[in-house]
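Appendix B, record 7
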Amino acid sequence: MLAAKTRSGLVETLHDGAVAVVSADGDLIAWSGDIDRPFYLRSAAKPFQAAVAQQAGALLRPVELAVAAGSHDGHPVHVALVESMLQTVGLDASDLRCPASWPLSSDAERRLAREGHVSPRPLWHNCSGKHAAWLRAARAQGWSTESYLAPDHPIQQLITEMVSDLGQHRADPVGIDGCGAPVLRTTTRVMALLYAMLSHHPALRPVFISMHRYPALVSGTGQGDTTIAVAMNAVAKRGAEGCIGVALERRLGIAVKSWDGLQTVATVGAAAALDALGEASAYVADQIATIGRPKIMGGDVQVGELEPRVEMRWA
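Structure tokens (predicted):
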């Protein structure tokens, strides 16, 4: 169990899921729920996908690496960085193979509407930073920039092998993510190990630093992963269908999966895990309160909350 939604004193819904905590040495420290049930990493894989692109010659600046590792909200700074990533290597938005989309942020979408835009664009897709990083790596290596989403493309093969090696678990056979890219298989236990590796592995260090230094570029202000990275010496990355990974620098990896696919529930589970581990000091608890116990509103009045129900087991 991850969380319960209460409304006007009644438990309205219960939300099942799994939590795993792994040390930097790779040892399972604590868990809750079925941590070996398979699911897809979705966008929680982006830090590792960005690391492979960088190692393959993408030559991203720290701000660009943060966008590549993130699911951006489509604000002007995000879009400008993705455009720059492409233009500096002789590419442009027409080379992106992610689908046309409006920004994740409703504020960003309204701004575009006020400017007269009537159609979505690939550049505004939350995954465009990742795609731009892959294109830069492909250009640097002389690989095809048209087929970079194919599972047998060199950049995708390198990603699958790295994630399989770091997680000590085969990430294939791959599926297809919402942006058209190969999506990798995992479990909550394996995902926690991956984020433990992100917390300290030398090959992943540039990504950790960039995500921690520029958390608002990883997603946007107010998001759960950004909130955790601002409040703590950690980075976090959410993925579609209710998963989130947290890497506490050089110490721990935490993974949470909500089986009903709700991101708010997964984020509540992550905050609860941090509290159970003793990581939520008074300051941290105050900073992450909005994501750890989201309010349930009745009109303009709070009538309940999404409260944590995580019961950790210790190794």
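Remarks on this record: The mean pLDDT is 96. The chain has one domain: 3-314.
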